[in-house]
Amino acid sequence: MAHDLPGVPPPGVEQIHAQLTRPALDGHRLAWLAAGPDGVPVGVACLRVFASAGRDHLAELDLHVDPAHRRLGTGSRLLSAAVAHCRAKGRRSLIAAAAADGPGEAFSERRGFRRAMTLDHLLLRFEELDEAGLRRAADAPHPGYRLTGWTGTVPDGLADAFAAAKNAMNDMPVGDLDYGSVAWDADRVHAMAKVVADRGDALLTLAAVHDDGTMAGYTEIVVPRGAPPRVQQYDTAVVPGHRGHGIGLWVKAAMVRRLRAEHPGAVEIETDNADDNVHMLAVNRALGFRSYRRTREFQLDVPAA
């Protein structure tokens, strides 16, 4: 990863350990390790197999081979093992990501994957913030709405409203990916928060609630365990009936303010958007996010067993 994604902090040992030992939400994970004749690891493949209704056709692959050992068949063997598992479990779609114009892109295309979406990765560096602009966005009046926030799992009194707002993510642009959909309810939002907590990360959520009790929109940030300087943007969504009122920019600006107050060690936020998600890209750029790399999402149509 360090070779193919310069500028992206590689995952630490604790983070990898948590991914390998903690259960995933909706399905299961598998991992394969490839080693050379001397026993030294040269490649790894991690497969997430989804099981929830709406995504039970889908699996997601993360595959890496040490640069010195590429073009020797290691990646192909790892891929074959993952595809065989997908076929055995009846999954018809396998998704993988690769750095744009990098070796992973060529590898994917040679092995029958088709390009389905381009993601623009953006960084918001706090040292470059337009402080006056942030204040205007965070303090802009929104009559009929109020902000509320929490850390970890959603309070019981907001769980149903939050789940309903989560379903707004199902109309997010995903290019040509056969990504399916997720039906959110209170149990699922609690389960998702538990997965994050169990791996040692902190989940921060800020939401806009309408006077009628519905949740108009929300944004989520994950602070990885160990409090590294870069934090990760998770979902941001505005419910269709509340769009066009600046809710997305409002909650994201207020989240930046909250993050800086509660986690002073954080210095930047990373997010990504499909390149055709023009509305969220506009919100992020208005806040000061700037593009720093691109990845492509590829999809393989898995032949039936």
TrEMBL record:
Residue ranges constituting the N-acetyltransferase domain according to the UniProt record: 1-141
Lineage: superkingdom: Bacteria
Family matches, as SUPFAM superfamilies: Acyl-CoA N-acyltransferases (Nat)
Signal peptide interval: none
Keyword hit for Acyltransferase: yes
Key words of the record: Acyltransferase, Transferase
Protein name (record): GNAT family N-acetyltransferase
